[in-house]
Request: fold
Amino acid sequence: MKRRHLLLVAVLALVALSGCTGFFGSEEVDPERLNENASYDWNTSADGTIVIEESKYTAVYAVENETTFDVYTVDGLGRERSVPISALRFRYENGTVVSAANSSLSASESRQRTTVNLSGNVSGKVGYSVARTGKRFASPTLIEDGSYTVVLPPNTGAGIPFLSRISPGGYESETVDGQQVIRWDEVTSDQIVVRYYLDRDLWLFGGLSAIAIAIGVVGTLYYYRQLQAVIRRRQEAGIDLEEDDGDDDPRDRGPPPGMR
Reply:
């Protein structure tokens, strides 16, 4: 037993010395990853702007007199988890944009958070990129009670029930240069969720709906014709030929049997 305990302690010690993320503090994000290239909408007026692409999304957040900026997501169990950011940039209020390669801009990653270390106590906008897949985007509101903008990929849309979801409500939507843009003046909820569909999904859904309606109409007509055929056969056989007269007065039928 003692040997097992010593072996376990040795393994934990090795993990700690290797800087394993999440259990023993944080580690620096690879500078090469931070210096990757990406395009950002620095002219946005929203506190947070997310531009969704097919395999990634870019985010731009406004900061004021901050030395750090925390990035994280929330898993299915409600636990905070770090985000593997790349292409880190910072734009000062005078328009100067710096990267990790030409400034003290850096980032560290722990199990729960990715912390962007800014170049001192600064104001401006921080931008980063994150790899993604699927047709759903979800993110905590990293700026409390802020304004947000989400730009969907080209040839996609959101707003039709069952095919998409936009949360929270109270948003405005418009199409700009062929892309749907969703805006919130103020988000007080804890999370933004956008589930969208491809344009071809909409056509497919419409086609399947038309087929289902056509099958329903044909089925109803077939059932109606079968019912009418049964009625005709019963009439030809002399069944149910007598119909009750709706104006028949019970008093005209005479006394009950045995009292006549």
